[in-house]
């Protein structure tokens, strides 16, 4: 193997310009794959965080069956006390209690069916980006105030503004008649029509009084510092939930299953384009290796007449290609990792992203991180493709006749 490796390395540099051009194509493709896949994973993380930050959170504690039925009687008893217990047990303050009901919201001129959500004004801004999307007025600041914030579309449909009154009519948890008058303290614009059209938030204390919830609520929303911590926080939360309460803990995937499916669909489309890039590189390598084999036809004929087997010559050709692939693999990963580190420190932005970030309360720049999967996945596929591209030139040697080969010009 030692002499075969030395021969392969020597043969690789018989045509240094051609070798570097082919290796350069592999290095370029590897850098593109490392950067794009890392950036894509970073965008997915930001997309998940921003989508969940609007309302869902990274995980929630709920009563059994509430995730499917959304019935008012499927509630968490003593929810505020449990929320405080989770804050202390988890060591984080990004825990908020919510309650939800459906009601008829009426202004002086119009009425619409809406979802009324009771929130804790002190903790809701720590788990949701919605308080930061208030474009007029202010977010409620008291847990018992008769105040509400509404979406821009609903405010337009009801023909109301900050300071106007809304009458809420619905059913309490016990089936009794629930009604209240609240003052619009703020109007938010989330950019999502469904939320802006049919969503009202009022303080949790007011919600519990109006809908006869007593001390119960429907959701305890928890936000983690990083998406990778969710599984650990889920396990820790399950251990903190009172035994025998039958409460369940749902992670973000269970709460928003369509989000992961959308990411998987986008990733499949991206890998189709990456696959085309890998195929182009593989054909470039195939052309280089085939030219190298054809140029050495007479040389191969001579060594075969001396007893060298076609199989060993084929392994030599594949080893030459593998060495070239290793050059592309190593330099591609090093340059790609350096680029990702630079972008991870300084951030990446594209034209129009700052306006979108301001519009949806999102970060203005993407900060990808160096991770093993996006760092190695693309270059590994390129390396495998280059080795596979050498199979045909190596297999041609099995049909090579030594006498005819030595006569080749």
Primary descriptors:
alpha+beta, 409 residues, six-stranded mixed β-barrel, 16% strand, 10 strands
Structure notes:
The chain has 409 residues and is α+β, with helices and mostly antiparallel strands. It folds into two domains: 2-52 and 259-406, no CATH class; 57-254, no CATH class. The chain has 17 helices and ten strands. It has helices spanning 2-12, 16-54, 66-69, 79-90, 124-127, 152-158, 193-198, 204-210, 230-240, 252-255, 257-295, 297-305, 310-346, 353-360, 372-389, 391-396, 402-406, and strands spanning 59-62, 95-106, 111-119, 134-137, 147-151, 165-171, 177-188, 199-203, 219-222, 248-251. Strands 2-3-8-5-7-6 form a six-stranded mixed β-barrel. α11 runs parallel beside α15. The model has no long low-confidence stretch (mean pLDDT 86).
**Structure summary, number of beta strands:** 10
Total helical elements: 17
Helical fraction: 55-70%
pLDDT averaged residue by residue: 86
Total tally of structural domains: 2
Adjacency order of strands in the biggest sheet: 2-3-8-5-7-6
Quote the distance from N terminus to C terminus. 30 Å
Strand content: 15-25%
């Amino acid at each position: 193997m030692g002499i075969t490796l030395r021969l392969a390395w020597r043969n690789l540099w018989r045509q240094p310009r051609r070798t570097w051009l082919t290796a350069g194509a592999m290095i370029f493709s590897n850098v593109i794959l490392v950067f794009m896949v890392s950036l894509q994973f970073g965008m997915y993380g930001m997309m998940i965080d921003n989508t969940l930050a609007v309302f869902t959170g990274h995980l929630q504690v709920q009563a059994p069956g509430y995730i499917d039925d959304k019935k008012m009687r499927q509630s968490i008893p003593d929810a505020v006390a449990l929320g405080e217990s989770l804050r202390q047990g988890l060591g984080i303050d990004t825990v908020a209690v919510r309650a939800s009901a459906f009601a008829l919201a009426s202004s002086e001129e119009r009425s619409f069916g809406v979802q009324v959500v009771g929130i804790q004004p002190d903790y809701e801004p720590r788990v949701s980006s919605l308080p930061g999307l208030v474009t007029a007025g202010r977010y409620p600041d008291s847990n018992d105030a008769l105040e509400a914030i509404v979406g821009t579309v609903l405010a337009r449909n009801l023909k109301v503004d900050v300071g106007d009154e809304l009458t809420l009519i619905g059913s309490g948890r016990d089936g009794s008649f629930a009604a209240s008058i609240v003052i619009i303290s703020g109007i938010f614009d989330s950019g999502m029509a469904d939320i802006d059209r049919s969503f009202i938030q009022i303080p949790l204390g007011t919600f519990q009084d109006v809908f006869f919830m007593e001390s119960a609520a429907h959701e305890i929303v928890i936000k983690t510092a990083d998406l990778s911590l969710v599984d650990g926080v889920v396990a820790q939360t399950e251990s903190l939930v009172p035994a025998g309460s039958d409460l369940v803990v749902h992670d973000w995937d269970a709460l928003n299953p369509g989000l992961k499916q959308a990411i998987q669909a986008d990733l499949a489309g991206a890998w189709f384009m990456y696959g085309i890039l890998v195929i182009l590189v593989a054909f470039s390598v195939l052309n280089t290796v085939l030219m190298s084999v054809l140029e050495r036809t007479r040389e191969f004929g001579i060594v075969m007449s001396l007893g060298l087997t076609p199989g060993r010559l084929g392994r030599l050709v594949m080893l030459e290609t593998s060495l070239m692939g290793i050059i592309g693999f190593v330099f591609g990963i090093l340059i790609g990792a350096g680029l990702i580190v630079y972008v991870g420190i300084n951030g990446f932005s594209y034209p129009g992203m700052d306006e979108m970030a301001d519009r949806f309360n999102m970060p203005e720049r993407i900060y990808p991180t160096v991770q093993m999967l996006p760092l190695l996945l693309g270059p590994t596929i390129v390396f495998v493709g280059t080795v596979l591209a050498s199979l045909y030139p190596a297999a041609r040697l099995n049909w090579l006749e030594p006498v005819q080969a030595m006569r080749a010009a």
